[in-house]
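Good morning,

Attaching, inline, the backbone tokens for the sequence recovery test we're adding to the shared suite. The designed sequence is right after.
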């Protein structure tokens, strides 16, 4: 009977080019007792390429509750489990986070095997400021929720990194243009693959470039942060605009205060006026 827990290895795998994997990652995948993969068929291509014969089981969004319990049981048995995603570093915009959180809670050793990340890869060649940045993952698929999120980001000074599907790319870029503004942006497609493409320019430039094209492959967007341009309207008008996007009064006040570079208290005064006018009108 095992008296010691196994180890959960968080193994970064290539985001496209199969050569982008570390010697350590290959060794860990070979030595692990079990590999937990987001898509077993996708991962099998990588394993076959490197002659890795470790058993593989699936772990993805729709089975994470059941499989999470199974993997936790194997770890408590003393088995070493290597977690991989379809591409890049597990736990970033995928259900691996839940497994990692559970393992930590159970006192199981969690070891990172670092490597590729689409977000950092895209940022590194974007040509936009890299000193401070924020990773936002996928914006909401529904337009209203997406616009609400973008509204809260208008005053953000850091470079912003997003993931996006090719099907939603144009609508997302249009929303960025209309809500955040015509800023500098880099749109990176098929990173590390044969058809890798990087488009740089203003949001309007990229929209024009892509308007008659069919976009394929997963996309990374790197957007320039607020460079001190502030908001164009008055505090009151910008606050009303934020509220119309669906933000709560608290969220709207925070977004507008960032955009103008002023205290939340100043914006709050305008919020009280809007509340008063709304009450009188109602």
């Amino acid at each position: 009977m095992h008296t010691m827990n196994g180890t959960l290895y968080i193994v970064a795998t290539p985001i496209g080019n199969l050569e982008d994997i570390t010697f350590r990652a290959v060794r860990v995948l070979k030595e692990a007792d079990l590999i937990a993969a987001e898509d077993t068929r996708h991962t099998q291509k990588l394993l076959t390429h490197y002659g890795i014969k470790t058993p593989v089981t699936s772990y993805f969004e729709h089975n994470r509750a059941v499989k999470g319990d199974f993997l936790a049981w194997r770890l408590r048995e003393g088995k070493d489990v290597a977690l991989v995603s379809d591409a890049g570093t597990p736990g970033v915009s995928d259900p691996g986070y839940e497994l990692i959180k559970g393992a930590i809670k159970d006192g199981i050793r969690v070891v990172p095997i670092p490597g590729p990340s689409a977000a950092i890869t895209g940022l590194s060649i974007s040509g936009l400021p890299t000193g401070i940045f924020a990773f936002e993952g996928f914006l909401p698929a529904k337009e209203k929720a997406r616009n609400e999120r973008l509204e809260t980001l208008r005053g953000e000074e850091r470079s912003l990194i997003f993931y996006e599907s090719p099907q939603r790319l144009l609508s997302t870029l249009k929303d960025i243009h209309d809500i955040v503004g015509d800023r500098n942006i880099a749109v990176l497609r098929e990173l590390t693959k044969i058809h890798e493409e990087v488009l740089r320019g203003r949001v309007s430039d990229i929209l024009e470039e892509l308007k008659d094209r069919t976009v394929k492959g997963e996309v990374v967007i790197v957007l320039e942060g607020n460079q001190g341009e502030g908001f164009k309207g008055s505090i009151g008008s910008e606050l009303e605009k934020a509220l119309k996007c669906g933000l709560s009064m608290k969220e709207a006040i925070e977004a507008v205060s960032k955009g103008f570079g002023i205290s939340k208290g100043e914006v709050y005064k305008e919020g009280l006026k809007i509340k008063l006018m709304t009450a009188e009108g109602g």
